[in-house]
Structures are given as structure tokens and as C-alpha cells.
Amino acid sequence: MKPLIDAGTDEGLWPDDDPAHRVMTCYLRDPRPLPGGHATINIWVVPLGEYDDPTLRLLRCVPGAQAALVSVSIPDSDWLTSNMRESDAVRKRKQTAIMRRAAKAWGDKAMGGHMGVICNVGYPDPHYLGDPDNTAESLTAVLGAGVALDLMPAVPQIVAFRIDPRGSEPHTHDLNLLCFTCPPDMFWPQALLG
User: Fold this and answer.
1) In what order do the strands lie in the sheet with 67-75?
2) DSSP state of 154
3) Dist. CA 176–CA 154, nearest whole Å
4) Are the beta carbons of 54 and 21 closer than 8 angstroms?
5) Contact indicator for 139, 99 with CB cutoff of 8 Å
6) Is the pTM of this model over 0.70?
7) Whole-angstrom Cα distance, residue 157 to residue 192?
8) Whose CA is closest to 141, among 88, 84, 85, 100?
9) pLDDT tens, 44-88?
10) Within 10 Å of residue 106's Cβ, how many Cβ atoms?
11) C-alpha distance across the termini of the chain, in Å
12) 3-class secondary-structure state, position 188
């Protein structure tokens, strides 16, 4: 997906794809069936007004949703992103360490069979404008712990990434997840663009 976002920058659709210009990225599965052996990727760019809050816009799509906060602080030694070029053994060790921390953070926060996630990524430097989407591997470990504990479905309906303006403590990175329930028949493209 990232090369497609980069292509939008290259084509001048926006000045840059950093969080100053792309304030939230949402990933979701298109529920429409496709012929076997085919995949389609749709990208929607939703302009926001100066005072629009994308988190509120997303949550307004699910009035009455139940929610839970799952927060995991990850030390630099265990931090895992798609930009890191480490051996499989090191990546596996980091993933396991994150899952152990996440299991404690999940506690008994059962989300049911249909849910969404907004992942707010806190960096030690709150002014850092890195790409929070690059933390998907760390997030996958946190969500994997929730799946292993039977607290959430294996595939959330929607996953969104944002920079957490609060940052994190030195030498740590925070993943602050807002998990929320969704109707089973939710059609996110229409809800978000409607």
C-alpha cells in the first residue's frame, strides 16, 4: 500500500504524505466479492476542513459503539517497524516481547466479533512527523495478543493510524489503541464518504 501513497505524492495530489498532510490512514477490506485470482485496491482521499477531526468523523459512523482503550509502551529494544532490516530471529523476538506486553494491556477487554481500531502512535519526539503506518508490525503483535486471548476477531473491520500528539517517554514508543464495536453489516466506504 505504501508505494501507492508515495505515488500520490509523486503525482502532486498532496505536498507530502507525512502526518502534517495525511492526518489519518484507514485500512479496510472491501466486502464486495471479486472474481477468483483478482485483487483490487481502492484508495479514497477524503479532504478535511481546518477543524475536522478524523477520529470523530470515523466514530460518528458507529453511534452507540462500545469502546476499550488498550495502551502498550514498547521500549526501543523491542520496537518493530517495516523500515527495520533485521533478521527473522530478531523480528520474531521483538514480536513476542510486544505480544507479552500487549496481553497484560488487553486484560479482559472483550470486543466481540466485529470491531475497528484507531491506533495512535506516540513517538519519543512529539514533533516527529514519521509515518505511523510503518508501525503496522508492532500493531499486528498487539492485535495478535487480543486474538490469542479470544478478545477480538482475527481481522478487524477497519484499522486507522494517527500520530499521537502526546508523544511518549524517552526511549519508548506508545501504541494507544481505541478499539470499538461495529455493526456486522457495516459498509465503511459509504459510511466514511457519505
Assistant:
1) 25-28, 158-163, 115-122, 172-181, 67-75
2) S
3) 19
4) no
5) no
6) yes
7) 13
8) 100
9) 888 888 888 999 999 999 999 999 999 999 999 999 887 778 888
10) 24
11) 24
12) helix
